[in-house]
Amino acid sequence: MSIYYPAKSPKGPVAAFPLRSALVFFVTSFGFYVCYFSSRQIIALETEAETTASGGGAEPTETRCTNRPAIIPHGPQTRYVHFPRPATYDRGECVCNPVRFFVIVSTQRSGSGWVEALLNSHPNVSSNGEVFSMRERRQNLSSVLGTLDRLYGMDWLTSAAKNECTAAFGFKWMLNQGLMENHRDIVNYLNRKGAMVVFLFRRNTLRRLISVVANNYDRRARQLNGVHKSHVHSKEEAEVLARFRPELDAPALIPSIRTAQRAVRACLRRFGSTRHMVLYYEDVVRDSRKVGGGTSRMALEFKRGYPITGACSSLCMQALSRVQEFLGVPARELSSKHVKIHTRPLPDLVGNWEEVRRTLRGTEYSRFLDDDAE
Asked: Transmembrane segments in this chain: where (predicted)?
């Protein structure tokens, strides 16, 4: 049997070469594409895992910030340093500057407005006021945590916003603004988020109660041209508000003091597992008063009802220096335009002073009658 072979075309191998080259090029390109896409997916998954493990939100990884400051705490302190990426604006050149989150926990009429104003005079500190004074932000746990997420994501624009790179970002939270009702979940959130707590309270509960009653009266009376003001920025306004001498309910005085102190103790106990410091209003005033055994200009101005424009750090403001150190910002000269309202001795502040004095005399709260307590 004869076998016939097809005649080979002289152009066969030459004609097949472009097809083979195209096939090899396609396979090679596809391989490079698969490798590149897979590597990007792996990087994305590793980034998400690192962010989740650190408890942070949408923060850039180490590879995004090649120009981070050299001095960044290591070890346990690392969890308190964040690199937030807000969704509503670009942090620009500040994206690689570390930020510490904080919250000032306090009670009304404990000097929190003054202390917050002092801290906000620092170029790298932004404290955003009483965020939870609005009921809709604290009507349930979900709204509370959602507000905290938005705040600590730095998607929060207030008058405390800085042109400079913010290094400490937080707000004020009063005990009666949903803090104590959800304390377990809030403690877990603060610890998971790496937020620090500054407790600010007042030792002389009697003076605080006097201020509370007087402030509640002004809510109704609106003594400053029909406007209620909890804080004033002029000596004249302070003098108008100081004219009112509230009469305290003597039979309810001791129970009121006891309730206020119990709330403070409960707060310190429930939030004790957070990274925190305790600051007392009286210490801020007293530390500013003592400079080499003398009296600082700032303390005199505050006690006499003048704006607080003196230099804190240069006048040995130890209390506020501790706060700045705690927040991880350089100690600076702090100032405020707040004016103290009740500057007179206790007997001149209360309409029924003798009754108040008799009620507290001989009790564990008699120390509040000493005007040197503040």
From this structure: 15-36
